[in-house]
Every structure is written in C-alpha cells, then in structure tokens.
Amino acid sequence: MFMFSIWQNCFFPKKSIFRLIFSKGRGIRKWILILFSMGVSDHSFSQTLDDRFIKLDSLMTETKLKISLLEKTKDSLENQRKILVREKSLIDINTKYNIAIVGSDKTPLMESIYDVKIVSSLSKGQEIEILGAKENYLFVRKDDLYGYVSPIFLNRDNQEINDFINGLIEEDNFQNEILTKKINAENEKKYNDQIKLAESKRIENINKKFKPEIAKKVINGDIWIGMTKEMVTLSIGFPNKVNRTVLLNKVNEQWVYDEGLYIYFDNGVLTAWQD
Questions:
Q1: For the chain, what are the domain ranges?
Q2: Which of 27, 34, 29 is nearest to 12 (CA)?
Q3: CATH top-level class for 94-170?
Q4: What pTM, to 2 d.p., does this model score?
C-alpha cells in the first residue's frame, strides 16, 4: 500500500483527474489496473503472432525448395525409366523380327547416310538383316555387304517387323535428343564461361587505365560530358556508325548506336549525347 501511494504521488498530481479516480476507492483502481494489464497482454499476444508468421514464412520457403528438388529428382528418374523401358523392349523382341523384305527394285544400299555412295542395289523380295538405326535410316547386312537403307524401301506389311523398325528408329531419335541436350548444355556453359572471362578482363583493364572513381562509372556503363572516345568504347562498346566532320580548328564526330543513341565528340572529347 505504501509503494502504491508513492507511485500515485509520482505520476499523478493532486488535482489531476487520474488522482481523483484513484482516490474513489479500490473498485475503480481495480478496473483500471485490469485494463492496463489487458493492454500489455494484447501487445505480447501481437508480438507472438508476428514471430509465428515469420516462422511460417520461413517454413513455407523451405518447403518450396524441397518441392523443387523433388520435382527435379522426379524428372531425372522418369528419364531413366524411359531408357530402361526402351532397352527392355528391344531385348524382348525376338531376333527373327530383324529380318526384313526389300519392297522395291533397285533399292540403294548406301555406305553412309551422309553421301550418295552406293554399295549395292537390292532387289524386291530379298531378305536383309536389320542391325540398328541412325537418323531415320536402318543399318543392315546383306550377305557380306553392310550399309544403310531407308525404311521406305522395305516391306512393312508384317506388323512385328514394322514394330521392330519403329522401335529402333524411336530409340535412336531418343538417344540423339539426349545427346543434343548434353551438347547444348556444354556449349552454353562454355559460352557463359567465355563471357565471364571477357568481362573479368574488361574490368581488370579499366581498373588499370583509370582512377577508381572513373573506373567505377565506366564499368557500370555510364556516359558523361568530358569522356574520351576510349572511355566510351570501354563503357558501352563501339558504335554501329561514325559520322565525321572536319572543320578548320576541330574534328566533330557523331557516334550512332542502336535504339537511337547518338554521342557527339569535339576533338575526341564527349560534348553531348542524344537518346
């Protein structure tokens, strides 16, 4: 009670409305203290909710990353499954289905699919052994001769042989697609590495040529009045066209860039630009 009186005297002057309220008995003081406690409780509850929302956002971000990794793993496993299914289908086919009948006279047996050098001409009704497929051609054997034949010259009436030929061609196309994607990915990586190396050398060259404050602006691709032609080329590259005017005491140049950018030099110093 003594401490409460001290607190009351410190914070509420004798003639204040709050001092009058506190002097009216314990009932009013009790309700004011309860309301004050509720305000503190509400603040704590709000702070707790904010913490929970932060944790929930973090959990959602982590979950999205896990889902992305699982989807990539799923795609990889699906590609492996397709390869295994195709290999199994080829293994399960009886070897008797690789004997096909030539359907046209003078069917060319070519040494390579990339030229027209003919090894032999096959006659209608002859049997040939199909050994594989390459870029929609069949690699075949006729007695002691090997070469490539277009499937359009073969008799495709037998459904089992037809399925065998289609399976070989489909498998070859599938493997070519995988190889193409791999080559494209390797080429893209090499290209990106070359770009990074060229940019690194460009930045190194600029830092050697100019003071730090100038070098920073050139590296960022900025242009400003007073630049030299060398600064401009290092900053935004060479122009598509240069229009040059020779006067009595000076040489004016207009550099033309894509997207309507024009830069003007007087005796090698940038004096204006237009975009």
A1: 1-38, 94-170, 212-274
A2: 29
A3: mainly beta
A4: 0.43
DSSP-based three-state secondary structure for 223 = coil
Long-range contacts: 260-267, Cβ < 8 Å, 24+? 263/223, 263/232, 263/239, 265/229
pLDDT band at 93 (very low <50, low <70, confident <90, very high): very low
pLDDT band at 126 (very low <50, low <70, confident <90, very high): confident
Counting Cα atoms < 13 Å in the Cβ hemisphere of 164 gives 23
DSSP-derived letter for residue 154 is B
> What does the pLDDT average to over 166-195?
90
Residue 246 near residue 215 (C-beta atoms within 8 A): no
Instruction: Please name the CATH architecture into which domain 212-274 falls.
Output: 2-Layer Sandwich (3.30)
Distance CA 48, CA 150 (A): 74
